Amino acid sequence: MTNSSNFPRILFLFSDTGGGHRSAAEAIIEAIYLQYGHHFNIQMVDIFKKCAPLPLNYMPELYPKMVKVPQAWGLGYKMTNSYRRARFITASSYLYVRRSVQKMVRQNPCDVIVSVHPLAAAPILRVLGKNRPPFIVVVTDLVSTHALWYHHHTDLCLVPTEIARQRAIDFGMNAQKVRVVGLPVSDRFCSPPGDAFIIKQKLGWPGHLPVILLVGGGEGMGPLEKTATAIDAARLPAAMVIVAGRNLKLKERLQSKNWQIPTYIYGFIKKMPEFMRGADILVTKAGPGTISEALNAGLPMVIYSRLPGQEDGNVAYVVSEGAGYWAPNPAKTVEVISNWLNHPEQRKQAVQACLKLAKPQAARQIAQIIIDEYLPQALHRTDEISPHKSWGNQ
Ligand code: UDP
């Protein structure tokens, strides 16, 4: 009989501040299961919910409000973005979070830690001390990565792009510890395109119309409503699918409108891979998760907003490679979509540009690194593998 308490234990640190950290962690976990089976004890811990006292434990709820003032967010990003300042922030908050971090570590003993959040490494490495499990960071920003991602004591730092690798080194990381793998997305974004007509029909959308998919990250951020209204007013020959994410008020407002073109409104959906594979054009904020998923799904995009500082590089990355356009106002969004609808060959070129930037192996590669390099005992395991050291119990 299989005793799962003997399985190697992997602790994933993330937070529901936005949707991207969770998606990345889930993509890696999916890749572990796909390649190695379910012989692991995997825990996902929201670092704000479990490692921070009041009011920081409400960060997932506060985050959408904080990014509502993008200029302030951008200023904060800029002012803190050096290794020294990043360490100052984490050092000065340490006393405040120490007890909660100690408790989380005690409750989640493990053999390897994988963090997909920039704020986890400093306090958790400090609490763990020298005798600790390996600590791997998977950076989930694409280009303009913040100094907080690059704690020098992490054992391995996996980054999505060459630019992110260079930044890691510029922030003082040992180059030997940094590897470019891509941003992990679920396998379901990466399979062959399939018949769009059938996918659309299965989702309850008109199979014969191009579908414009509008997404504002996990929290329904950016001028989603204004942009959708402009597309509708232009009466483009297409259907609109609007994903409001966790923004329930936005969803209700959108549902109460009379739309001229076929329009389908959703809250937070679990079927993003199917939605992206059924859609023809994506309108999105510059979230790294959504962008990477769209690249892998071969879905050209119009980026309608970005968080200053943090997401600036993402826009340049997409636009310079021809995978999409920057449209800072609804009129520009309508212009780009209309052009793609009138010139399908141009949209097809953008599809090819997306696929060129895609890194469909990223999640699997990260899974292989975690298991092959840090949990080799899992490769030779029988059900009687040796009991764990309890790292967190010291
Ligand atoms: N997402 C989702 N369902 C939704 C809205 C968003 O699964 O209804 C996912 C999306 O596929 C992506 C993530 O949430 O993986 C958003 O990440 P991104 O980095 O684009 O933006 P964030 O929300 O983190 O700012």
Helix content: 40-55%
Poorly predicted tracts of residues: 382-394
> How would the global form be characterised?
globular
Terminal Cα span? 31 Å
CATH architecture heading of the largest domain: 3-Layer(aba) Sandwich
- The top level CATH class name of the largest domain: Alpha Beta
CATH homologous superfamily designation of the largest domain: Glycogen Phosphorylase B
Report Rg: 21 Å
Order of helices and strands: EHEHHHHEHEEHEHEHEHEHEHEHEHHH
Strand content: 5-15%
Number of helices: 16
CATH-defined fold name of the largest domain: Rossmann fold
* Largest beta-sheet details: 6 strands, parallel
Key traits:
binds uridine-5'-diphosphate; 6-stranded parallel sheet; 16 helices; Rossmann fold; 394 residues; 2 domains; disordered C terminus; alpha/beta
3D structure, described in words:
- It is a single chain.
- With 394 residues, the protein is α/β, with parallel strands linked by helices.
- It has a 6-stranded parallel beta sheet, with helices on both faces. A 6-stranded parallel beta sheet has the order 9-8-7-10-11-12, sandwiched between helices.
- The longest helix has 25 residues.
- Helix 1 packs across helix 16 and helix 8 crosses helix 11.
- Helix content is 44%, strand content 14%.
- The chain has 2 domains: 205 residues, Rossmann fold; 167 residues, Glycogen Phosphorylase B (Rossmann fold, 3-Layer(aba) Sandwich), CATH 3.40.50.
- Helix 12 links the parallel strand 10 and strand 11.
- Bound molecules: uridine-5'-diphosphate (UDP).
- The site of uridine-5'-diphosphate has 18 residues, from helix 1 and helix 12.
